[in-house]
């Protein structure tokens, strides 16, 4: 069976997080560019509290700490971390809330790691439990995987030996993929301490939540999940009736619809404009197509395209905006560019001998509808150009395949699984690297190339 590389898993994790974020935005109008306000929580004044000697100083539980001279004020003021005592087990509870993390440009993640270690240093000689609220982790506030690896390595045996349990509340596919990435680093003993908790009611089965300050965003998210589980409507939400697409619509409509509404133009305007801009300005940008852009900004650009308004990429000052727009367009097609019927043939590429794979890919593409073939050839011609600059932009055919494979093909039911990711990337890499051979025998009459 094909193995899944760490790079594949990281790419899939990014895709899952983006998908979760898009779904959350669509349902609730969340604005990830709007940081949560700092929270103020007073520490316990109860002298009988088992940790009063520490809590009275307000180092941790005063998450809205007004002492600007505190060495970790810049992190502590957000209230991301809370420490309390658990009356049931007489040991500490540490709560980490993703929804309270501000955008990355407002938070020094290296300082955050130091703050976590500074906090744990005060308690690691006692038993403690960690509760991680995953809801609210977004593409604009998440730490990098490199940071996560460093964090795990920094938390040596001193920190791990007295950790009794790690509860991950409201886990998503992103969390499960990240766990797969980290499995080679994680000991079996530590792995047994992890428990996924789908609902807050389940968390209360494991520990007392009376002293655990649960952010309002997490409470609302839990209510929505439970309502959805019961088949009822989401609280305080209304599902608008579906609206017909605008004549100028570019995202979420078929290629045929775009042709009909754009006077027979075969290459969708959003594709031709992003590719043209990137060809002129972005071929030598390191990590092109691997970097993200602000989610709300991407939504704004999509809206402009859908309304038929001009988009001037120069005004955004970020070469990654058109790169993300191109990927988003492909991902939001009702049917993938490589079409549903070809999905299983693409998956079978791993069963073909390496020497025959280029010919096989060429044969598979022969059955594509003319319009799909023309748009695909236009895109792959451009990606081949990008790969030729890989010494500078670090985007080899393999790296580009990791980005574009999942945006070119997916099954008609469900999503791309971990095991299906490798053949999809292999197929896409062949199309990019051997573009001139794969697309040599078929030249559509109305062919357009970048």
Automatic annotation (TrEMBL):
Gene3D superfamilies: CRAL-TRIO lipid binding domain, Rho GTPase activation protein. It comes from the Eukaryota. GO terms for biological process: negative regulation of endocytic recycling; small GTPase-mediated signal transduction. Residues 253-439 form the Rho-GAP domain. GO terms for molecular function: GTPase activator activity. CDD domains: SEC14. Residues 65-226 form the CRAL-TRIO domain. SMART domains: RhoGAP, SEC14. Residues 25-36 have a biased composition (Basic and acidic residues). Residues 17-46 are annotated as: Disordered. InterPro entries: CRAL-TRIO_dom, CRAL-TRIO_dom_sf, Rho_GTPase_activation_prot, RhoGAP_dom. One of its GO terms (cellular component) is cytoplasm. This is Rho GTPase-activating protein 8-like. It comes from Salmo trutta. The gene is LOC115183140.
């Amino acid at each position: 069976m094909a193995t899944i590389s760490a790079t594949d898993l990281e790419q899939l994790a990014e895709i899952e997080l983006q998908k979760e974020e898009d779904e959350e935005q669509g349902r609730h109008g969340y604005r990830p560019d709007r940081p949560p306000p700092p929270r103020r929580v007073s520490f316990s004044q109860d002298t009988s509290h088992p940790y009063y000697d520490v809590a009275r100083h307000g180092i941790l539980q005063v998450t809205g700490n007004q002492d600007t001279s505190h060495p970790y004020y810049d992190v502590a003021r957000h209230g991301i971390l809370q420490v309390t005592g658990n009356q049931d087990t007489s040991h500490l509870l540490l709560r980490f809330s993703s929804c309270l993390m501000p955008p990355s440009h407002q938070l020094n993640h290296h300082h955050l790691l130091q703050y976590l270690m500074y906090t744990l240093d005060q308690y690691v000689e006692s038993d403690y439990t960690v509760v991680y609220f995953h809801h609210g982790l977004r593409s604009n506030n998440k730490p990098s995987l490199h940071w996560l690896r460093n964090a795990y390595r920094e938390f040596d045996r001193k920190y791990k030996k007295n950790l009794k349990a790690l509860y991950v509340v409201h886990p998503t596919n992103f969390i499960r993929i990240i766990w797969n990435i980290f499995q080679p680093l994680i000991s079996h003993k530590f792995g047994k301490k992890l428990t996924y908790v789908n609902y807050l009611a389940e968390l209360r089965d494991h520990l007392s939540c009376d002293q655990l300050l649960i952010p309002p965003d997490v409470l609302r998210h839990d209510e929505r999940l439970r309502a959805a589980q019961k088949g009822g409507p989401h609280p305080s939400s209304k599902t608008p009736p579906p609206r017909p697409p605008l004549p100028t619509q570019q995202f979420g409509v078929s290629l045929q619809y775009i042709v009909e509404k754009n006077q027979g133009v075969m290459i969708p305007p959003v594709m031709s404009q992003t590719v043209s801009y990137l060809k002129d300005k972005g071929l030598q940008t390191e990590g092109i197509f691997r970097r993200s852009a602000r989610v709300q900004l991407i939504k704004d650009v999509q809206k402009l395209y859908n309304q038929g308004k001009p988009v001037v990429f120069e005004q955004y000052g970020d070469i990654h905006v058109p790169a993300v727009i191109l990927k988003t367009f492909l991902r939001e097609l009702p049917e993938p560019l490589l079409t549903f019927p070809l999905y299983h043939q693409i998956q079978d590429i791993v069963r073909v001998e390496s020497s025959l794979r280029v010919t096989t890919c060429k044969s598979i593409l022969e059955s594509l509808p003319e319009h799909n073939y023309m748009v695909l050839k236009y895109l792959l011609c451009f990606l081949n150009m990008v790969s030729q600059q890989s010494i500078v932009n670090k985007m080899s055919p393999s790296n580009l395949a990791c980005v574009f494979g999942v945006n070119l093909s997916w099954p008609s039911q469900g999503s791309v699984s971990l095991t299906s990711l490798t053949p999809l990337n292999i197929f896409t890499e062949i199309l990019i690297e051997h573009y001139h051979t794969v697309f040599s025998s078929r030249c559509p009459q109305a062919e357009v190339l970048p």
